[in-house]
Automatic annotation (TrEMBL):
<dbReference type="GO" id="GO:0072546">
    <property type="term" value="C:EMC complex"/>
</dbReference>
<dbReference type="InterPro" id="IPR011990">
    <property type="entry name" value="TPR-like_helical_dom_sf"/>
</dbReference>
<comment type="subunit">
    <text>Component of the ER membrane protein complex (EMC).</text>
</comment>
<keyword id="KW-0677">Repeat</keyword>
<comment type="similarity">
    <text>Belongs to the EMC2 family.</text>
</comment>
<dbReference type="InterPro" id="IPR055217">
    <property type="entry name" value="TPR_EMC2"/>
</dbReference>
<keyword id="KW-0802">TPR repeat</keyword>
<keyword id="KW-0472">Membrane</keyword>
<protein>
    <recommendedName>
        <fullName>ER membrane protein complex subunit 2</fullName>
    </recommendedName>
</protein>
<feature type="domain" description="EMC2 TPR-like">
    <location>
        <begin position="112"/>
        <end position="221"/>
    </location>
</feature>
<dbReference type="InterPro" id="IPR019734">
    <property type="entry name" value="TPR_rpt"/>
</dbReference>
<comment type="function">
    <text>Part of the endoplasmic reticulum membrane protein complex (EMC) that enables the energy-independent insertion into endoplasmic reticulum membranes of newly synthesized membrane proteins.</text>
</comment>
<dbReference type="Pfam" id="PF22890">
    <property type="entry name" value="TPR_EMC2"/>
</dbReference>
<keyword id="KW-0256">Endoplasmic reticulum</keyword>
<dbReference type="InterPro" id="IPR039856">
    <property type="entry name" value="EMC2-like"/>
</dbReference>
Length: 312
């Protein structure tokens, strides 16, 4: 009896269909076969980052007065879309013209103000962009996009400490943003602030306990910090990563082996609990099996490594 497709499988199939349709429409529109507006709408809906194609197809529509008039109020959405694509392609003259049209149509609009600030960013005029964003936040302190742009500016200038400051302030307001917690964690790791990174991953695991990536990242931070207690906890989270991925995460299998070797070295073999010994043996066996299937030429290297760690 055939099993019903899972939600993930359906979502993946739908995404593949949308991507294929986007590419068909793109080729059709670029060769004068019509479907330009349909393509641009689909690109927006999918949040597809194809600026060169969007710029070319969008400009053709904007430069066609008849086609533009048929869009009615939707033409302003097109001006915005073309402006963003132009900035991505460093066609700042086009972006400036589009934003100018929008500014005249919507004076005092925060949405247009964000585009003007983005243009400052595209020019590398960081101070002007900061001032523009500060003005927007005075009117709307909860503008999520503007807070994210301030973080991006700090990173673009290489000021990771400022980025951390902005991320923490952002999370005080939008504390349920899991992507921001992950970004903060990764930024802390880049600054070698491992305790702070571990805290971020703990928050992520509490919020989304079934995502193996968070378990793995937390384990790696703890392993990097070192010390017996951290290594024992890291081993547990490597094990939970293996469980959540059905035993198919090679990095986590390596992690269990490395933690086991480090713990044995620190305890001089006194920490030979049965459960831990069984886990490291199973991880070593799974690693060898994985390499025999996917990279047979590397098996002698893995075997030698496991022997040096006294795990085989």
């Amino acid at each position: 009896m055939a099993t019903a497709p899972t939600t993930a499988a359906i979502a993946a199939a739908t995404a593949a269909e949308d991507e294929a349709r986007l590419l068909r429409l793109e080729e059709q529109a670029e060769h004068g076969g019509g479907g330009a507006w349909e393509y641009l709408c689909l690109a927006r809906r999918l949040r597809a980052r194809r600026p060169a194609h969007v710029l070319k197809i969008g400009l053709d529509l904007l430069n066609n007065a008849s086609a533009r008039s048929r869009l009615a109020s939707e033409q302003w959405t097109l001006y915005e879309q073309v402006a963003v694509a132009a900035m991505d392609c460093q066609r700042l003259d086009v972006a400036k013209d589009c934003i100018g049209v929008l500014s005249k149509q919507f004076p005092g609009s925060n949405r247009v103000a964000r585009l003007e600030a983005l243009l400052f960013e595209a020019k590398g005029e960081w101070e002007e962009a900061e001032r523009a964003y500060a003005l927007i936040l005075e009117n709307n302190p909860f503008d999520q996009i503007v807070h994210k742009r301030k973080i991006a500016i700090a990173k673009a200038q290489g000021d990771m400490s400022l980025a951390v400051d902005y991320l923490n302030k952002y999370l005080e307001i939008f504390m349920a943003d899991h992507d921001a917690w992950r970004e903060l964690a990764e930024t802390y790791v880049s600054l070698q602030m491992y305790k702070q990174a571990a805290f971020c991953y703990e928050e992520l695991i509490l919020a989304q306990p079934t995502i193996p990536l968070y378990h793995l990242a937390y384990a790696e931070v703890l392993y990097t910090m070192g010390g017996l207690e951290n290594l024992q906890t890291a081993k547990k989270y490597y094990a939970s990563t293996i469980q959540l991925t059905g035993g198919k995460n090679t990095r986590a299998l390596f992690g269990v082996c490395l933690c086991s070797a480090a713990i044995n070295q620190l305890t001089k073999g006194r920490n030979k609990e049965e459960e831990g010994s069984e886990l490291q043996s199973l991880a070593a066996e799974a690693l060898l099996k994985d390499y025999k299937q996917r990279a047979p030429s590397k098996v002698p290297l893995i075997t030698s490594m496991l022997k040096s760690m006294k795990l085989s």
